[in-house]
UniProtKB/TrEMBL annotation:
The keyword Signal applies. Its EC number is 3.2.1.21. It catalyses: Hydrolysis of terminal, non-reducing beta-D-glucosyl residues with release of beta-D-glucose. The keyword Manganese does not apply. Keywords: Glycosidase, Hydrolase, Signal. InterPro entries: Cellulose_Degrad_GH3, Fn3-like, GH, Glyco_hydro_3_AS, Glyco_hydro_3_C, Glyco_hydro_3_C_sf, Glyco_hydro_3_N, Glyco_hydro_3_N_sf. Belongs to the glycosyl hydrolase 3 family. The gene is bglX_1. Residues 657-726 form the Fibronectin type III-like domain. It holds the Pfam family Glyco_hydro_3_C. Residues 1-19 form the signal peptide. This is beta-glucosidase.
């Protein structure tokens, strides 16, 4: 395969059609003509502000002087209407007066925090996810920030990797839909509107497949897996109009992604005709030296700019490296011009040349930040993100007549941990703990008891006795266990993903009191808690839910919201099973069940199956799937099958079900997964209500990358499966593509 496109071709695709675009291209021409080489390189240079550093700062030059000298195009970690205005004023003192772009990691909300992205993905509610990004964009833009480094669209199949919290989980289809929704949410009606921020699809590419789940580690994968599993969410981000991309720290098959022409020039800017710009990850250009790919910063700069990395975040390689490289004729000026064009284009689209301060408006900031409307959106998203894993003996929803509820566990009164890892602009006044949420809910008729029981991650059981004594006084015990906010996130890989410390021992001690126990697991990744899963009657996975965490949990505990979340990632029984995901390839010796191990692709000491499967999640009500009907069982390539069935709410409560359509290509020129999610719908039904649900299957849904990496469908037999979880299929039918 050809690894990259000729330069002329890449540069030749920069012009796009609309009149507005043409006007902007003309303006860029006129600005470019006036710029010196140093000023051009300055546009490709990005420093962090001194507050909220989100990576290692290697040196601390005189940043303001560099801005004044026209040596900076963008800053990250400068936020606030007043602060951004002050820094922008310095840029206006430079010769060319080119405004700076301010970027920030707004990953799950700004001042009002939202559930972590993995939690939001559990909602399978695309409209609500888009709205969450919309709210975050409004607050961010009102704080003078033009650009969020989100969404992270990396597919992740390894829960040891701490950054699973930041993505949409393991599935390419769901991940692509969510990538699209998030980009749309951030960018709203388009750049230039005062409530829109630039999105940044990251980390390009395959960062989520770090070997052994260790952050920043190498990635080694087939082209096939890259194209079929890891790239589609990025393509979805392009289709949604993502203004920028960020490359990644990892090597991909031996080449650092930051220095990969194949990824950035051939695929992104070539095949996908991408017009936005690519920012490096923090220091990743310079890190090519540590990779052993570049001998010094100058060579790193050469490799990165040639590969298509347009902006250097914090590695101080483009400045001063590029000027010498151009002088030595190692880097053509056309490459610099193309990168600068891409950056200037966004500055024009944002309207910054018309008014560099247009986002830095203190009055608007005050009105927008932490508004009741924004908090309401966060609450709704949080309710929808909760996954009910178990509910036996009808413990949930809680009765309104309980006299005493005990909140027990190290996260019962925690506020900061509810914010999750990426919550930069939160403030103490906007956090609701579980305890506080229950207090708001129960009023005076129910007494709320509390005991911490133990710390999150140490070995002391000194608090157990008090916790048991408190539990004994209560009608119901609600336990809050899981991870601290900094146990999942960037550089937060863990080899042991069991519930940390002695928390599961605390659950055992409380369960031994015989009181009804509800366990809430609050975490940034799938954790392992087999004893709890097997012995406790009611379990909810609440992840980290953001500002309104406690209110959302209380609403779900009391049934004011009927849980509807479904797991976007497989929960293993043991770390030894990882990577474990539902859409694995068929093997020649499949095990028929968990006991079938003889000369089978199986473990002798453990089932193959997960503890909780992808797509799994319960409701307080129940749903029946009946009356499957298909319009055809044989189709030609240009035909479609309409699949319909009846979904009935057979329980006592109104509720939402996420109905999932999986397909299997039974034999093909490339071995196919045992099943793949290809569509879903989130359906609301009143108690007793039925609805006919319809899916359409067309050639696109049957397509895959063949041995030549060509996308298309092959004639043959397929199976369609409709279910409530990847391991709980209710209806199925075979059909043939002619
Ligand atoms: C490094 C992270 O990998 C990236 O996702 C983030 O946007 C940058 N740091 C900036 O904070």
């Amino acid at each position: 395969m050809k690894r990259y496109l000729p330069l002329a071709l890449i540069l030749g695709i920069s012009l796009s059609a609309s009149a507005q675009d043409k006007k902007i291209e003309k303006k860029i021409d006129s600005v470019l003509k006036l710029m010196t080489l140093d000023e051009k390189i300055g546009q490709l240079n990005q420093y962090t502000g001194d507050r909220d550093a989100t990576g290692p700062i290697t040196n601390n030059p005189n940043k303001l002087k560099d801005i004044r000298d026209g040596k900076l195009g963008s800053m990250l970690n400068v936020r606030g209407a007043k602060e951004t205005r002050e820094v922008q004023e310095v840029a206006m003192q430079s010769r060319m007066k080119i405004p700076l772009i301010f970027g920030l990691d707004v990953i799950h909300g700004y001042r009002v925090t939202f559930p972590i992205p993995l939690a939001e993905a559990a909602s399978w509610d695309l409209a609500e996810i888009e709205n969450g990004a919309r709210v975050a964009a409004r607050e961010t833009a009102a704080s003078g920030v033009h650009w969020t480094f989100a969404p992270m669209v990396d597919i992740a199949r390894d829960p040891r990797w701490g950054r699973v919290m930041e993505g949409a989980g393991e599935d390419t289809y769901l991940g692509s839909k969510i990538a699209f929704a998030r980009v749309k949410g951030f960018q709203g009606k388009g750049l230039g509107n005062l409530d829109a921020v630039m999105a940044c699809a990251k980390h390009f590419a395959a960062y989520g497949a770090a070997i052994a789940g260790r952050d920043y580690n190498a990635v080694d994968m087939s082209e096939h897996t890259l194209w079929e599993t890891y790239l589609p969410p990025f393509k979805a981000a392009v289709d949604a109009g993502a203004a920028t991309f960020m490359n990644s720290f990892n090597t991909l098959n031996g080449i650092p992604a930051t220095g990969s022409r194949y990824l950035q020039r051939d695929i992104l800017k070539g095949q996908w005709k991408y017009q936005g710009f690519v920012v490096s990850d923090w220091g990743s250009i310079g890190e090519m030296i540590a990779h052993g790919y570049a001998k010094d910063k100058e060579q790193a700069a050469e490799l990165a700019i040639k590969a298509g990395s347009d902006m250097d975040m914090e590695s101080r390689s483009y400045l001063p490296g590029l000027a010498k490289l151009v002088a030595d004729k190692k880097v053509p000026i056309a490459l610099i011009d193309d990168a600068v064009r891409r950056v200037l284009r966004k500055k024009f689209e944002l309207g910054l040349f018309d008014d560099p301060y247009r986002f830095s408006d203190v009055a608007r900031q005050e009105k927008e930040i932490n508004s009741a409307e924004n908090r309401k959106a966060s609450l709704t998203m949080a309710e929808k993100s909760i996954v009910l894993l178990k509910n036996e003996k009808e413990i949930l929803p809680l009765s309104k007549n309980l006299k005493k509820i005990a909140v027990i566990g190290p996260l019962g009164k925690s506020e900061k941990d509810m914010q999750g890892f990426w919550s930069i602009a939160w403030e103490k006044d906007n956090l609701i703990s579980l305890y506080q949420g229950l207090k708001n809910k129960v009023g005076n008729q129910t007494e709320l008891l509390y005991a911490k029981g133990c710390e999150l991650a140490d070995s002391s059981k000194a608090g157990f006795a008090e916790a048991v004594a408190v539990a004994k006084q209560a009608d119901v015990v609600v336990m809050a266990v899981g991870e601290a906010f900094d146990m999942s996130g960037e550089a937060k890989s863990r080899a042991n993903i069991h519930i940390p410390g002695v928390q599961e021992d605390l659950i055992k001690a409380i369960q031994a009191t015989g009181k009804p126990v509800v366990v809430l697991v609050m975490a940034g990744r799938p954790l392992i808690f087999n004893w709890t899963a097997d012995n406790v009657s009611a379990i909810m996975y609440t992840w980290w839910l953001g500002s309104e965490a406690g209110n959302a949990m209380a609403n779900v505990l009391y049934g004011n919201y009927n849980p509807s979340g479904k797991l976007p990632m497989t929960f293993p029984r043991d770390e030894g099973q990882i990577p474990l995901y539902y859409n694995y390839l068929s093997t020649g010796r499949p095990a028929k069940n968990d006991k079938d191990t003889r000369y089978r692709s199986a473990y002798l000491d453990m089932p193959n199956s997960p503890k909780f499967a992808f797509g799994y999640g319960l409701s307080y009500t129940t749903f029946d799937y009946t009356d499957l009907a298909v319009s055809k069982t044989q189709i030609k390539p240009d035909e479609k099958i309409t699949v319909s069935f009846t979904l009935k709410n057979t329980g006592k409560y109104a509720g939402e079900e996420v109905v999932q359509l999986y397909l299997q290509d039974k034999f093909a020129s490339v071995v196919r997964p045992v099943k793949e999610l290809k569509d879903f719908q989130k359906v609301m039904l009143k108690a007793g209500e039925s609805k006919t649900i319809t899916f359409t299957i067309d050639k696109e849904k049957l397509s895959f990358y063949n041995q030549q990496l060509k996308w298309g469908a092959e004639a043959g037999d397929f199976k369609l499966m409709i279910g409530t979880a990847s391991n709980n299929i209710k209806l199925e039918k075979d059909f043939t593509l002619l």
